[in-house]
Each structure stands twice: as C-alpha cells, then as structure tokens.
Fold this sequence. Notes:
By secondary structure, the protein is α+β, with helices and mostly antiparallel strands. The chain contains 23 helices and eleven strands.
Amino acid sequence: MEVMKGSIPKEVKSVVAELEKQGFEAYIVGGCVRDMFLGREPQDWDVATSATPEEVQKVFPDNFYENKFFTVTVRTQASDPKLKEIEVTSYRSDLRYGDRRHPEEVQYAKTVEEDLARRDFTVNAIALGIGKPGFPRKPGFQILDPFGGREDLKAKLIRAVGTPDERFQEDALRMMRGVRFCATLGFALEPETRKAIAKNVSLLKEISQERIRDEFAKIIMAEKAGEGVETLRELGLLEFIIPELVEGYGVTQNKHHIYTVWEHNLLSLEYAVKQKWSFEIRLASLLHDVGKPRVKKGEGKDSTFYGHEVVGSRLAKQILSRLKFPQKTIEKIVTLVRYHLFYYNVGEVTEASIRRLVKNVGPENTEELLQVRMADRIGSGVPKAEPYKLRHLRYLIDKVSQDPISAKMLKVKGDDVMSILGITPGPRIGWILDALLAAVLEDPKKNEKDILTQYVKELGGLPEEKLRAISKKAEQERENVEMKRDEMTKEKYWV
Ligand code: ATP
Ligand code: MG
C-alpha cells in the first residue's frame, strides 16, 4: 500500500507546511488518506494538528470556526470545490458520549496517536505526514497506522478501532457509517464489528433523523447501494430506519412474480443504481411497492395487491417526512410511487388518458416516472425494459404535453366566465371551470374561445344545484377513467 507521489493537492500540502513552519505538528487524516491508498479521489481533505483552534486561526486568517469540536475550516484559493475549504482539527479525544450522539466533552489530545484512537474505523484512522520524520523533514511520507488500517484496506474490511461494542455505544451512527463505507468501497464488515452492530442496533433510536437521513442517502448513492440496504436489513438496522420496507421481507407474490416484495424492491433499486439514475429515482424504485404487504389478499399464485400504489404513496410520505427530507424531494418520490402503475399499451390507451397521467404526475416528472417503471420491470426479472413501448409512450407524452392539462391552460379563464355571465366571484366560477376542463381533457379540440364561451353560456343558465352536480360529475368522470385504467392494470399487469 503506497501513496502515489503527486496525489496530494498543493493547497493541502501548503496547509500542512504552514503549520509545521510555525512549530506545530500536522498530518493528513481520515477519509482522504483512506481514499488515496485505494486510488480513489478523496471527497474532502482533513488535517489534524497539535495547534489549538485559536492557533490555527492565527496561521490562516481566512477561516471560519463555528462548531465546538475543534475544527477550523481554512479557506484556500483553489478553484476545485473540494479544495476550497480544508478542515483543520486539533488533536482531540472524545469523552463520555452521554447521548450516544455527540461527545459531551471533547478535550485536547497530546499526540496524533491519541487522536487516531478516537476515530471510527481502522481504515479511517491512518495519518499521513508529508516528508520523513525529523526536522527539517526530508522528502517522502510518514505513515502512522497504529490500528492496522492498511492491512484492512488490503483485506477490504471495515473494522472498528478498539472494542467495537464500546465504540458503537459511544456513537450509534457509526453503525450506519460502517455499512455506508462497505457500500461505497465494496468492503465487508469484519466479523466482530458486525456482531457488535447486530447487538447494538436499537441504539439507533437515539440518533436524530437528520443524521440517519444523511447516512441513508449516502448508502442509496453508493455503488453497492443494494447490498448496503440488504446489510441494513440483515443486521436489524433497517427496522429503525424504514421498518415499513422490512414488512416486505419474505412476502411472496402472485403468478406474475418470481421474487418476494423485498427482493423485488431491492432489484429495482439496483437497476436504478446501475443506470446511475438520480437519488429520487433510486429511492422511488426502492419504495415503489412498499404498500404491498399491507394490501395483500390471499396466498399463492392468485394473491392480489389492489391499491398498493395508493397505500404505498401514503407510506412513502410518512417515511420521507419522518426522515426530514426536503418537501420537494418528498413530493416527487410520493408522486412517482403513486403513479408507477400507470397502464400503457400501444394502441390501447387514449390520448386523453395520457393527458390525465401527465396532469397527475406533473410534466416535470414524466421522464422519472418512466425510469421508475423500467426499474420496476427489470426488478421483476423480465429481460427487457420494453424499449419500444416506452419510446412510444414518451412520444405520446410529448405530444399531449402540448394539450391543456390544467384550468390555467383553458382558453377561457375565470375572469372570462365572470364577464360572459356578468357575475361576481364565487363558487360558481370554479364549478364552471371544472366542467370546461373535463370537456377539454376529453377532447382538446374544444379548447377554443368560441366553443367554450358557448358552453359557459349554457352552464350559466343552470341553477346552482344542477351546476354543482355537473362539476361533481366531471370530477367523478375523471376519477372513473382512472379507476377503469386501474382495473385494466390489475387484470393485465402484474398485480
Ligand atoms: P467521506 O468524506 O468519504 O464521506 P470520511 O471517512 O472522510 O468519508 P467524514 O465524515 O468526512 O468521513 O469524517 C472524517 C474522519 O473523521 C473519518 O474518516 C473518521 O476518521 C472521523 N469520523 C467522522 N465521523 C466519526 C464518528 N462518528 N466517529 C468517529 N470518528 C469519526
Ligand atoms: Mg471526509
């Protein structure tokens, strides 16, 4: 295991050199050292030093220091965003993790070895000095690896520093970090470390949803995301992150499926990962059938899962809100889960129904919906994602996207309705617009000012009762078509 010459950026070298010039010790530490040994590009650069935060601030005036864990962020002139800020942390050791989240107290440590001992995994506890030991330093590197991190890098093992049981009790998030490093690096958990996680999973209850969310998101974005999520389940961690997903474990499906609900969800995720699709699509693929266990009726080849997309989207909303994902992310994923079952067969589906689909999903989400559907199909074990059908559907979506899909796009607006009928604002306007939209969704050619004006006049002459009924019927009609489509789906598709 060697560090390649030239793999350390000059900005990092200069931070280390400046500190040493002022008489302090400084080492590159943590994930970036691990990544350099693996020949991977580091995500960020961390330096550990014997200087106190105040001393670091004096050496690098362009800095900010806002947390209480001795980390000063030093700004550099680099154009690479990964190098714009370098974190410089004073040697420290962590004392008493009362809440298993944050050390209650941190205290300065005297040596870099002490600092390495408080780190989570051996592969993250290697320090790299620039230059050979001694003063002044001679060209070369000084590697401090007191816990055998390089051995574990070679063996592709994630092993806790020290006694695993204690380390996870200090900070329960480390359990998820361990799984995350396995998923991003393609490593395995060392058996004792693994055992200690399985024993301590329930401590995850004490970790904030935000920290859990961030680790979970990193697992989902990892190259081996599927394996990562499977490991979370095997160890029992998933029960404390998304218990709803665990419900699908071992749940067999009907004659259209060869996989259990859990296996199918995982395979769908894996396809989305293989395609390097976005975070939202990966998560929607993992969650798209989360509602199935709760709606399953019957057993064996004729069992059914009617309504699982509705229940699933409700569950997805609960899950993602609980994990405190941003509102926009939640909405997108919930929509993708809700409509993943859309019925489509070339020549069988009307443009009106595609128009309704685009309206429900939102024009900005249609491409993602197709991707989730492809992940769903491949995850079912079918050989192809139906390129022809999907190409055709894409073409139709494109075509109908030009058509009116919301009251906003009607050629006659609320204001027009008021002036045509000479009435003031009130619920009647909404009812009339509902009726117009229903007519136009059914036949876009009706979206002409003359035709709609005529229709408004007819509607305007009706008594309130009647008008209310028409608007209600228009809405029901829209729902009926959707239900009919769902019925067709149930028969023809794999539910
Ligand atoms: P990456 O930056 O690739 O996500 P990393 O290993 O650099 O991974 P960071 O969260 O950036 O992870 O942390 C930097 C280093 O700080 C880690 O390598 C590890 O040595 C230490 N560390 C971070 N979080 C913890 C923790 N919860 N417990 C113990 N040590 C930790
Ligand atoms: Mg890092």
